[in-house]
Each structure stands twice: as C-alpha cells, then as structure tokens.
Known about the structure:
By secondary structure, the chain is of the alpha+beta class. 15% of the residues lie in helices and 19% in strands.
Amino acid sequence: MTALAPIRLLIVLLAGLVVALPATTADAQTDPYTPIPPGFDFPTPAATLEHFRQTENVSQLRRHAWWLWAGINQEAAGGGPVWETWYPANYAFRPEDSVETPDTPLRQLRFEQPRQFQPQPGQPQLEAVGQAALSFVLFNQEALDHTRDEKLYLRSTLNTINNGFPAGTPLPDRKIPDYPPESVVLKLVWQVVKQNGLTEQPIWDFEPTKPFDEQNGPETWKRKVLVDPSRLHVPDGEMNNGMHVVSLQRFYHVELDTPELVNSAPGAVLGDYAVLVCMHVTTREIEDWVWATFWWHDRPNSGPLATDRIDTVTGVWRNYLMDVAYDTVTPREFDGTPNACMNPWLEARFRSGLGSNCMTCHQRSTWPQESFLPVTRGGLAPDDPYFENRTRLDFLWSIGDRARP
C-alpha cells in the first residue's frame, strides 16, 4: 500500500520558504522511534561483509542491500515505513540550547535542496523539468546519538579535533570518533506531481543523450512517463503521446495538503503530491560504510540493477532499482576501470557523474570542508595531499555542511 499515511514534514522549498505540514492525527507527531526490525540482516557482522567484498561476491553484496531496503520500509505502528519515525538532519544538528518538551514533535522533517542541486561554481542553475527536487536527510537513533554525544554538530568540536593532531599525522588516524556499526543515514529525494491531469516524470534508461563525461541531468533523459493520480491502476501498456502512463499508486507518495505549503511550491495547488524518486541508504556496518542507492523506474524488473531483489521487498518498494558500492575500486567495470555506483537523480547532472562512485565522493568529506566536486571514482591514498591537515568526517558530508558555529 502506498504512502497515504501521515508524514511529518517541515519543508524548505527552492524558494527558501519554511512552512509546516502538520500531521493529520495527534498520534502522527508522537509515533515512537522505530528501528529496522530484527530479521532483516542488519547489522551484519563486518567480517561477513568484508568477505563478500574481498571475494567480489556481487550477488551477496546486492542481496544485503535489498535486505536493508526491506527493513527500513517495514511498516511502523502509526503507518508508513519505519524511516518516517527517524530524525531529520536539522534535529541532529540543532543548537545546544534548543528547548524540548514532552509535546515537542521531535521528528518533524524538512525538505531542502539536495547538496548536489545547490548552486556550484560553473554548474547550471536548476530550471528545467525534472531538475528541481526536494530532499531531506534522516539519521537513525544510533547515528543521532553519536552525533550529539560527541558534539559533532559543533564547528568548535571539529576544530578542536583537527587542531589536536600533531603535524604530519596521517590517515586513517586523523579522523573523528567512529560512528557505531548500527548507524544508518538516509537521503531521500522527491518530485511534485499535480493532482489533476498527467505529470511528466523523467526516466533514466542508461541511455545518455550527451557524451558520458558531460552533464546528463534529468532534463536530458530520452524518456518520460506520465503520472496519473486519478486511477488506482493503469494498464501496463497504456501510452499517451508516446509516453508510458503510470498510476500515482506505483510511487511512494504524500499529499501536499496545506495552503502554506502550496504557496511555497511554484506552480503547485492544494492537493498536489510529492513522490519519492530516489533514496541513498548508507550504514556503518563496515569501516567504509555500505552505500546503496535506489531510484524509481516504470520497468523495475528489467536489467542488472533489478537482480537479486528478495521477496521480502514488497508492494510499492519493488518499483525501485538499486546499485551498491562496498569499495571505491572493486568490482571493476567491464573495461577494467574502478567501480562506478551513482544515482541518476543526484549525480548524472555533473560532468562524469555517470561514472562516479558514491564512496569515492564521501571519502573526501573532511574538516575543514572542501567542495564535493568534481565527482569521480577510484580511491584516494591515505597520504594524498587532499587530506593534509584535514580530519576525515567518517564519510558524512552532513557533518561539515551542518555543523554550527
């Protein structure tokens, strides 16, 4: 069943306005935190995953990622997937003197531009259909507790750690305290679908229209589907103007149902929807973290990124493809180059983004912070000049992005 269950959202849209989307029931704001339930292969012992990584057992590496996908999307007591009860990044990085009361809805979520979509030097602005996106980052309890307990939400803490290393201290010693293996961090990206008529949504079919090393954002993709919110079921082969028509029910989605929210969404009206188009799922089960990325597709049972999907993934969640990275280099691509793992909604819009690796990007998350560009793949050696006099942030860009003065 798709997501008509209440979701707790504070939304920062591209216009920069912050508005509240209140829950429709009192219980929705007070649902207890719900972890990944037992029985979903989490956390898997690091030795097991390291064995799969070293032997390049792609099938087992993918199956583990599908188990994670099934686990985070199990239904919570109040309805909706368990991740809806997790903590948004703005709460993890809240001020030290923030006041909390028993009535405070601690897990209000906030949409914002993905960091990949924020203005970058030399990059195009987001105007075309399919480019503008809403996003938020979620922390599970273990990731939240570590961030707060170690005061990693403060720049002063990061400066103290970085300045405390003797000159010349190399990686891997030059780093913040390790997050516990049970830590999970999610990044979700959404698009708006109109309540009336048919809304175009770009579809990535692994057929770039521009050279591989150029920008191949959603506005360049060859194919679009038309999303129909008026029907629970649309025949599989239905076409309209050469585009595949699909029901809104095939997406995980929420209704945009407050005037304040609508007024802050260019072109939206009361009753439009936000559909989940992709999600990054990362866990600290191994030192380099497990990097799994999922995106919606109208033909989710075709191609290599549909393989190894387990039967425990059910309902709307079976409409998402998946790629996964456990290493910056292996398993190598067919041409012998380092492993590539990217999400088309987030990385394709950058030069060479189609051949990037999420782990390669996140290994460069350090303090003092640098730009994540250029996106690339392959590993950096611990003595790479990039790391000189910098402290590794345990692969999490969120820390450097959001740490408070």
